[in-house]
């Protein structure tokens, strides 16, 4: 059998207004059968995708600056992912690793042990979604320490299940009306250099968080401190240098499990395998998902062998966790990251995109800050001359980009951040064209 990924010309072309007639017809069908609580950023229905392009059902080709929220790091339908999945799906679709185990699960765990930070002995457990990985990391930390409290930070996003809603900071749309939430979760301030007091160092911000955790909970009651090393939904917030290391050290000194939630920032996205690698920080547990498997649902908790092994047999798992097809996809995606140099590619994207964003900023006083690492970049939008968030301008700029065929996402506690998460295989030309559309959108809104 010849196995091919879709061959889609890597160029933006709009054949109809956005959304086109077929997308509109699908929206109509959807409105009677899909729950309103599940929303979509763009009213455009995808037909195929590859590289940096999503082709819609009307034949429009859109520049993808979102990667399905940081998932298709290797591009949609990466040839190695396609080949591995097609072969695997024809051999075994499912046996359940808890019933009849198979090699792919073991091979993914070996890769996770190799690639995650630290040279200590590591073990993994595989799941389906990021939220499920976070839930399980907390379960493991609680079991291993015999403690219950969990500390999370401001602007955190960890998922939509009950415990992860409790860990997530923002009420709308993630939490409002969905309580009661899991108990024994405490929140402390993070390091948010753009909004912290001028000149606050990472160490000072860490001390602010630690003091609050010690006073509000008590270090000896805390099972885990969980945070995203670069915050995703909360606004692509990069903590000041030294913050992560100071928190990790305090955790180690106090027998607290430091969980790095790398669901969005992990797997080559930031130009290193994991965002903590930029700071040389070694977490006790790492949660991964999204980019790990090129678009198939797979997630993992990886960590110190003694923590992972503390849980009794049967205490971790789930019917589909580490499904063979998802594992085959992960092995293909990781091979592409390694063979095609995607860490370096992410660094190149950072350089190229940051340059283009700085040119936009020079003409756009509403851009308060450009930040991020690798292919995880953002601009925070404010009322000029202030730090007052401008969510309306952010939404209007994003909408203009969508109308021009550029898939761009927003985020942030205040809804005022435009984030860029292109597939790392996007061409320079497409990336710059997408950012050109962003520049035009700002210019048109501010004219
Ligand atoms: C940092 C982080 N953790 C957890 C999650 C939840 O992942 P999932 O949507 O796969 O449950 C996300 C999703 O955006 C995330 O960004």
From TrEMBL:
The keyword Transferase applies. Its cofactor is pyridoxal 5'-phosphate. Gene3D superfamilies: Aspartate Aminotransferase, domain 1, Type I PLP-dependent aspartate aminotransferase-like (Major domain). The keyword Transferase applies. One of its GO terms (molecular function) is 5-aminovalerate transaminase activity. One of its GO terms (biological process) is gamma-aminobutyric acid metabolic process. It catalyses: 4-aminobutanoate + 2-oxoglutarate = succinate semialdehyde + L-glutamate; (S)-3-amino-2-methylpropanoate + 2-oxoglutarate = 2-methyl-3-oxopropanoate + L-glutamate. It is an enzyme of class 2 (transferase). InterPro entries: 4NH2But_aminotransferase_bac (IPR004632), Aminotrans_3 (IPR005814), Aminotrans_3_PPA_site (IPR049704), Class-III_PLP-dep_AT (IPR050103), PyrdxlP-dep_Trfase (IPR015424), PyrdxlP-dep_Trfase_major (IPR015421), PyrdxlP-dep_Trfase_small (IPR015422). Keywords: Aminotransferase, Pyridoxal phosphate, Transferase. It comes from the Bacteria. Its EC number is 2.6.1.19, 2.6.1.22. This is 4-aminobutyrate aminotransferase. It comes from Flexivirga endophytica.
